[in-house]
Amino acid sequence: MKKVDIEKIVEILDNYYPMHVMEDTYTGQPYKALVSCLLSLRTRDEITFPVAEKLFQAADNPCKMINLSYEELCEKIKSINYYKTKAENIQTISRILLEKYNGEVPSTMEELLAFRGVGRKTANIVLSVGFQKPAIAVDTHVHRISNRLGLVSTKTPEETEFALREILPKKYWRKWNQIMVLHGKNTCKPITPLCKTCPIIEYCNQVFS
DNA sequence: AAAACGGGGGC
DNA sequence: GCCCCAGTTTT
Question: Which residues in chain A land under pLDDT 50?
Answer without folding.
Answer: none
